[in-house]
């Protein structure tokens, strides 16, 4: 049977024709991500509509059912294809351009009126001014009685003068009537002497008339004095009001001339075209509803002030132990920075306790996560057409699971903060090593996410995680633990990796021609291994002998994920790498190589 299987096996030969020569090869670059000046434009893998959340969940359910039933092959969930929109204004639809113009107008008006600087959790400034004015009025009223006691009032107001004048009039009239009654009584008692009475009566009447005229003239002069005193305060009040109005107009004109400066993620609003990229994120997060986007922008600026983002960037929160749980590594195929969230690290009891054991530590973790994200965002390119989004890879292998209440609370809070204050910063959200319990967590988190956010999600079970990552991220950019070749060593992210699929029951050969004396170095891996690997040098001269570099041996799945070899070439020939896949599954073969000059 073994012989039959061997005869039936297929042999594939690949000849590497573009082997770099020693004299043209520079020393290996450092293992740092290389970002080109012009990032490639994101291209969708398919033109299919993004899956709805229900379809995504069904795909994951199907994967877990197959795994639970003991099936060897795990069906890969359908991957979501999301096309990232352009950040160039020229590429927008007319309706989107109009919305952006209206949005910018609202922002400009807010800057002119200093509305953003007034966004605080405390009562607004106008209210404070009113309270201050009220306090001043009360203090003046308290001082007024004391002043009245110390010094007499020189100028009376209209309300106090009028009652006093009326009272004086009543007193004068009363005196006239009394005098008149006395005269009448005297006239009645002396009625017998008519001749004497006529002379005296005439004099008395003349006296009464003089008294009435004197009293009337006195009252009239008092009326004129009170009216004059009343007009003076009214004139002063009108003058003060006019001065206040002029002061307000001057203040208003000054505010319009000097609008406030507000920056977000290091980009000043409306300063240049980078601001358009920022505003488009808020518009897209609110389906180009201008008022909703403006409200979201104001809320974000308010939240950033409350948290103190600028100060937070410079703080040392003492969370160095979280570096293995959250870290940035490499770029995806479209140039997006990739952030890895490794939930399995929280199986470490000490790390879990230091991060989530109480509310204070959870808040510190959230602040550290915000600080980490802010620092990553500051490195993005917000120019139109630049890369201004991030890819997140969430590794759920050995995750503490939903039973950990503290981690669940912190995760929910983090998601809510990201959705409310960091719109459209995720190009893709990839979940790998998805366990069975994730469905429950996903149902719990989904209500907090928009449909647009959910359409960016990609899920993969344990056996398909590496394959899923290589669909979006080149192998030289993926850490070794996740199926790539990126690690500290001689090779860096600038050294491209070649990917080959080895069919079941097939032998694959890679021939690397070498014409000059050099040191040839290569590293390779086969996903899941369980194959036979061998390497040899075949010289071009017929008189020379074949040199066995690596005797063919079976590489188990539990061995080192990456094998590195080197061979000093002293004559023209070729290095042959052989992968013999005797299993019934296809295998992915990754390798890269380089040459260095060497002396004879």
Automatic annotation (TrEMBL):
Q: Which residue intervals define the domain GOLD in the entry?
A: 494-595
User: Which terms does the UniProt entry file under GO BP?
Assistant: cell division
Native species: Salix koriyanagi
Q: Name one GO cellular component term.
A: membrane
UniProt record similarity statement: Belongs to the patellin family.
UniProt key word Thylakoid? no
What's the protein name? Answer: PATELLIN-1
Polar residues composition-biased segments: 216-229
Q: Where in the cell is it found?
A: Cytoplasm; Membrane
Q: What is the lineage of its organism?
A: Eukaryota, Viridiplantae, Streptophyta, Embryophyta, Tracheophyta
Superkingdom of origin: Eukaryota
Q: Which GO terms describe its molecular function?
A: lipid binding
Provide the CRAL-TRIO domain boundaries.
Answer: 315-490
- Keyword Cytoplasm on entry: yes
Q: Where is the composition biased (Basic and acidic residues)?
A: 127-147
Coiled-coil ranges (or none): none
A Pfam short name: CRAL_TRIO
